Amino acid sequence: MKNYTPADIRNFALVGHASCGKTLLSEAMLRCAGVISRLGSIADGTTVSDYHVSEKQRQISVSATLMHADWAGKKFNLVDTPGYLDFISEGLGALRVGDFALVVIDAHHGLGVGTDRVWNYATGYGIPKMIVVNALDKETGDFAAVLKGAQEHFGRHVFPLSVPVDAGPGFSRTLDVLRNEVVTYATDGSGKYTEEPATGELGERVKQLHNELIEHIAESDDGLMNKYFEQGGLSEEEFRAGIHAAVQKELFIPLFAASASKNVGVARLMDFIAKYGSSPVDRKNVPAHDANGHEIEVKLDSTETVAYIFKTMSEAHFGELSFFRVYSGTVTTGTDLFNSDRKITERVGQIFLLNGQTREAVHSLGVGDIGAVVKLKDTHTGNTLCSPKHPVTLPKVVYPKPNIHAARRTDERRRRQNRHRACRVTRGRPDVSLRRGRRITSDHSFRAGRITS
To answer: Is the CATH code 3.40.50.300 the one for domain 6-283?
Structure first.
């Protein structure tokens, strides 16, 4: 496995309202990077992300799925998340460990309730956002309306970096605002493209947008603003150097035009993420508490290991997987780490890099990276694993309370068996609560939210 420095890692969550195209966007990214040789289909149940039986049956995402790819020398750790609010906890865990949020909006339906939810959660975690307007190959897609809605809803800092030229069936061309070019994508789903200078009306349009973008970036920094007024503009080097800082301050929220199902616009989106996207270096210090409950910071360059468990999942024939991000130090197979929440020591088992259900075993995982480890004996979602010599606890995700309730009445013979099964189902699921109520004797009595015995 190639070793990546924290500056070369891009951790991000694909979030948005239900059915906006997050899973297909992750599929297109994997196709561009050569991880897969063809685009999968949700209808056929062949996407990398939606591999669980329930996801194939329902044709929706119900679980956050970790994937990775190499693009332009950078490692992308992308987490595809469900859009339905019933499964919002999966998105919360992904945003907790992401360095930015990639917010997907459907070109036909526009912003939804789920868009607002994930946007606010990302803001709460203090991470920047980027926006993708998806499904522009559909006849009913309206890029201009979505752009206007996003600017009205999220503020004037939202600005398009690509604009569709031929939106609708046959969509294959975009205007690249950064480079003043027309980008034409292959129709075979490979994501490959060719570039040519924008001329005529397209040239005038992209030139105007490019100048507006320069002004936008200049406004994000006092030094750049002074240069802009003194020089009458910014050099290309000054302009591009200011983009990353403006994204981090959320004074510039880039918006991209794309069709994930056709793999149009995705490769240039990935180029931007690789060059200007957030990395662990942008948040070198994260808040934590020491063994005495005092507030401290975990530093990226510390040699003491600190990792956060953001998801726990049990799979048949494989065992329990604990998904984690490394905030300092290195997690290595065979070493002992201290669970500061449960006050126990865990022996690190086999570590994996994941692409859906495909696992690649690695010996260790460095700072800033994300992976999964198997068969930790008593570690759960939200726990911190750290060096025994340096016990710290990272902040936990605050999950919403369950809003769907059910009850079950069991007879004496099956009581223990059913309790054990219920505990196994809820293990590692902070969004699911299990309560024991009094015994019910009536055949028609059920208590919402309780499992009775």
So the answer is: yes
